Every structure is written in C-alpha cells, then in structure tokens.
Amino acid sequence: MTYVLSSGTGRLEHVLPDVREPQVADFNGDGIPDLYYTVSPQGAPRRLVVKGAPPEPWRRPGKWELAQDFDGDGHMDLVGTEGRQISARSGRDGRLLWRAALDLSEDEPALLPRSPGDDLDGDGVPDVILQVRGWRTLGPSARESYRTLAACSGKDGRRLWLAEDWEPGNSSGSGSGIGWSYEYPLFAWGAPDDADGPAVLVVDGGRDGGWRLSRIAGRSGRPAWSAPILRGGFAPSPATGSSPWGDFNGDGIADLALWSPEPGEGGGRGGYRLKALEGRTGQTLWASPSLVVADETQVIWPEAVVGDLDGDGEPEVVVALHQGYHREQRGYPCELVVADGRTGQVRWTWAWRSGFPDIWPPVVLRDGEAKAWVCLAVREEGFDGLVMLDASGRVRLRRPLQLERHSLDVGRQVWRALAEKGTGAVAVAYYDAGHVCLAGARDWRCAGAGPCPANR
Cα separation of 285 and 317, whole Å? Predict the structure, then answer.
C-alpha cells in the first residue's frame, strides 16, 4: 500500500492499495511531477497516473525574510525568529532546515542582500550575517552584554564567527535630500579580497553623532577599518546601478570613493572632502585631494560614481555639486566634476544653472569598447532632459524629456545603469512621455518594444 502526503502540510492526500513501487514523471508538461503506477486486473496491465499538484502554501507565525537557497532545491529559503532562536525554513514546503544556537539581539536579524559572494566558509552554500548579543567577562563573577554581528553557516546553522572586537553604534536614523533618501544602520556585502574573501560593510552611527562606514572581514569577523562619511554617502535610495568602487592604486582590490567630514575649529566639522579609501586598510590614497565643500547640502547626489571614462585602465570619479542659490543669477550654479582616480585632482567640469538643483544622478555608459560616457538628467531654463558627455567633458547629446509637471521626481525610480552580460556594454533605463526606455551609449535608440520617444 502506498500513502501520498502533501509536502506542504503533511496531510494524507491519496491511498493507493496494492501499489508498492510507484514512479514519478511529468506527464502533462506543467513542470510538476506526477505519480504513476501499473496495475494488472484480470492479467491486463494498465498504467494509472495521479496528477501532481503544487505544494500548498505554508504558514508560520513570526517575521520571516527571504534569504538564500540553502538546500539547493532551486527555491529561495527563509530565515526568521522562533522564540529567541534563529531558524531557516524551506521556501518550498516550510520544513525546518536548521536552527542557529545564537543569543539574538533585540534588533531584527541583519540579513544581507543576496549576492554570489556570500559563501564565507567555501562549502558552496551561502551563509547568513546576523545581529546577535555577545558577552564580555568583567571579572570572576561579572559580565556584560553587547550587540555585534555573527555569521552562521547556511548549510547547518553553526556559528562561523562572532565579531568580538566590533560593536555597532547606538544611533539609527533616516533622512533625505533632493531626490534621495537613506536609512541606517545599513548592512551590505563589500568587494572581496584574496585574504578575507567577501567583506561585510556596515553603516551605523558613530560616537560623534555622525555616520561611519565599517568593513568587517567576511571569513574571520575581524574589523578592518571604519571611516566617517557624509549622510547618505553610501548606498542612498533609489539605487542607480552605478558604483563608488574602483581600483585606484592598481593592487587588484576594489577601493572606495566617498565624501568624508573634515575636522573644524573647536572640534566641529569643517566641511566635506572627497576621498579615496584603500579597500583593505581604509587608508586615504590621495595625498592632496582637491574637492572640498563647505556644507553637505552642496553635494547634489551624496554617493560618488566611479568609472574608467577614457579607457586607460584607471578609473575616474564623478560627482555633482552646486554653489548655493545666487539671487543675481536667479538660480543655482551647478557643475559635474570629474576627478582623476589616482590623484584626486580635477580633470574637468561641466556647468549648468538650474532654478532647483535636482538631477537624475550621473551614470557611466559603455558600448562594449574601451571608452565610456557620462549621462545625467538636469533641469535648466527651457530644458528638462538628458545630457551625455564624453571622456573629456564635451557634450555629445542633449535630449529633452517629456515629464509630467516638468519634475524629475517622475521617473526617478526608473533611472538605472544596466550592464549587459558578457559584452561589457552598459545601457540606461529611463522614463520619457509615459514610456520606460532602455538606451545604449552610442546611438541612443530605445531597445524596448512599441513606439517610444527615444526613437524620435
């Protein structure tokens, strides 16, 4: 006798008397396995098929987040808390995969975004970073708790490491600028290096009331460095697909360009300086960086953009700034600034004037060849549209956009650089006249279907 149970609930679905060896195959091509068996009444064999059904939705109390495919069945699995324990359950049928023996923090687990670089122990299974509670021994009979991060195996839930020498700040917060916002603390995967594999990046509140970016070694949990940053200066929302990472010193490890606060008189802040930080140590690479702003609001988009514009193998850094409102000009003088990635010195600038310093932030486009272009959307008197500049700062294209209310807020969530696999080409998705357009760097013809203003 064969009993058929629901994989999602365990409920009995079918009883097949006198069936001992049923087989499984997809008879109707719907991608769901069916059950078949052979019977021989009066000696005449017949094949019978029980149609397979998708597993029933499973439900469990608590907060669950989509994590990784831990069991390799092609379905994303979930991680959540059950009581004071962290558990992983199958996204296909809800069965328990593992429980981690960790003392959880009061905060929610810090599940880092899914990425191909998050296998920390090299067993082929993606792992998980969590906020946990650690304990310090203060004396023979005294100890205190502290918040920190831990990594646990996605294979069996065992603890891989505890970041004993690192503790997040007490501050959390969110805020916004012109067309962007941030929410910290933030956890992300960083570029890997040869010694420590993929890094864990954390933005949290420093003791001085500002924000800091920390790098933690992915294989050991050791803190590598921390650096103060501009609010929103790392991973602002909406994401544009561009990156602040680049190899500025030629060592094969990705470095980081960002705005960092400068010390001022009396212990206050003295403005913000664009810096390049060495990816492994956090040390400043540029001996005399030249870009300084007196106030954070002068940085139109808080995150720097890195790309090799002239094809010489050395990246450049792109930022957008304004000089404040000038009454005599009846607007804001703005400029796009491109700095040398090796020295931090300004290569060129491109200026425009706007009644309101709003942009779709710069992205670096490629057509698969060596050179690249910088593209952004700006607002000028009589012009709301896209501007594309070549590696020397010359305008190669100006294309007006048809936006409702003449506002760049319309379509802001669409604006994104998209890399084409295997070709090195980078296109841009943008919004125009009610259409979502996808255009390349050279001919600027929309690759989407149907009539589109990009093809006019």
Answer: 13
Q: How do residues 255-292 score in pLDDT, each as one tens digit?
A: 999 999 988 766 666 799 999 999 989 999 998 878 99
Largest CA distance in the chain: 102
pTM to 2 decimal places: 0.80
- 362 contacts 377 by C-beta, under 8 angstroms: no
293, HSE (Cβ side, Cα atoms, 13 Å): 24
Q: Is the peptide bond before 238 cis (omega within 30 degrees of 0)?
A: yes
| Structural tokens at position 194 | 């040869």
Count of alpha carbons within 13 angstroms of residue 74, beta-carbon side: 0
- Given a contact cutoff of 8 angstroms between Cβ atoms, the answer to whether 88 and 70 are in contact is yes
Q: What are phi and psi of 35, to 5 degrees?
A: -105, 130
CA 450 – CA 431 distance, rounded (Å): 14
Contact yes or no for 313/291 (Cβ under 8 A):
no
Q: Which residue has the tokens 């109707």?
A: 28
Paired tokens of 308:
């090799």
The span from the CA of 14 to the CA of 376, in Å, is: 61
What is the distance between the alpha carbons of residues 372 and 364, in angstroms, rounded to a whole number?
A: 7
The two three-digit tokens of residue 131, written as one number = 């906020």
- Segment 107-154, tens digit of pLDDT: 555 555 555 457 888 888 988 888 887 777 787 888 887 888 888 899
383-389/269-277 β-pairing: unpaired
Reading the block at residue 29, the tokens are 């091509």
Query: Beta strand pairing status for 64-66 and 346-354?
Result: unpaired
- The two tokens of residue 43 are 């000696």
> Is-contact 4 13, C-beta < 8 A?
yes
36-39 own/partner pairs: CB under 8 Å, 24+ apart: 37/2
Q: 131: which residues sit within 8 A by CB, 6+ positions away?
A: 104, 105, 107, 108, 109, 110, 147, 148, 149, 168
